[in-house]
Design goal:
The chain has 275 residues and is an alpha/beta fold. It has one domain: Spore Coat Polysaccharide Biosynthesis Protein SpsA, Chain A (Alpha-Beta Complex), CATH 3.90.550. 31% of the residues lie in helices and 20% in strands. The protein has nine helices and eleven strands. Strands 5-4-1-6-10-7-11 form a seven-stranded mixed sheet, with helices on both faces. Strands 2-3 form a two-stranded antiparallel ribbon. A two-stranded antiparallel sheet has the order 8-9. Strand 8 and strand 9 form a beta hairpin. The two termini are 24 Å apart.
Length: 275
């Protein structure tokens, strides 16, 4: 049985209270919840047909009563977690502990600021971890489509080996095409093979709890990327290209307006039953 957990907090540096901000008539977190539910119920349109049901449950994990109350109002199951959780990973690890989940259980972290998250990606990342029995974590990526994206430090890049095992994640432009640059960074003309990391994760509970118990690593602190803690600890992260293009997440007021417009226009990524 698949577990999907949506960690949600009220505090946000760039967009306070964003989990509850109204988006096309619903709180933002409700959109994420409905997409997570659609991943289980098979209410995903792919070539005009559903893809079948999957056993599982969707939980919203929060330490904020305002979010908990709103989530219960739209029918979600809520797990109240400690206010001391430093990250979504810590919050999900606490849920696993509170619920007594087996170390082999697979749990997907569906981030609460992605209202256009395609349900198919939740299923894809869970299946990627299931079929790679030796892996600890699975995640997804998309090809980088422009030089601006390649150079953007907010676009996290990932490189992997021939079997899809992550080698490194970075805010820097990697892999760097030496033959495409005659000098400094601004001279680069190529971004061949570059991939942007999509922050959707599936964990085995044992690996999740191990990760949450580790202190921040040197590379993690330098790049501000928690997944580097797992790599530095010798954990295996499998990476695959997304089977569908993910929609934008919401981090700023501009993002909120943009996503609202996409939902209002009937963006194909929003066409999920109940959404």
């Amino acid at each position: 049985m698949l577990k999907i957990v949506i960690p949600a907090r009220f505090a946000s540096t760039r967009l306070p209270g964003k989990a509850l901000l109204p988006l096309a008539g619903k709180p933002l977190v409700q959109w994420v919840y409905e997409r997570a539910c659609a991943a289980l119920t098979g209410e995903i349109r792919k070539g005009g047909a559903g893809v079948g049901e999957m056993a599982g449950e969707v939980l919203i994990a929060t330490d904020d009563e305002r979010i908990a109350s709103a989530a219960r109002a739209f029918g979600a199951s809520v797990v109240e977690t400690s206010a001391h959780c430093a990250s979504g990973t810590d919050r999900i690890a606490e849920v696993a502990h509170l619920r007594g989940w087996d170390a082999r259980q697979i749990v997907v972290n569906a981030q609460g600021d992605e209202p256009l998250l395609p349900p198919a990606l939740i299923r894809q990342v869970a299946e990627l971890l299931r079929v790679n029995a030796q892996a600890d974590i699975a995640t997804l990526a998309v090809p980088i489509s422009s030089m601006a994206e390649f150079m953007d430090t907010n676009a996290v890049k990932v490189v992997a080996d021939g079997q899809g095992r992550a080698l490194y994640f970075s805010r820097a432009p990697i892999p760097w095409q030496r033959d495409g640059a005659s000098g400094e960074l601004s001279t680069q003309t190529r971004w061949d093979g570059a991939r942007r990391h999509v922050g959707l994760y599936a964990y085995r509970v044992g690996a999740l709890q191990r990760l949450a118990a580790l202190p921040p690593s040197n590379l993690e602190v330098a790049e501000k990327l928690e997944q580097l803690r797992a790599l530095e600890a010798g954990m295996e992260i499998r990476v695959a290209d997304c089977c569908e293009v993910p929609g934008p997440d919401v981090n700023t007021p501009t993002d909120l307006v943009r996503v609202a417009a996409m939902l209002g226009a009937g963006d194909t990524r929003a066409r999920v039953q109940g959404g």
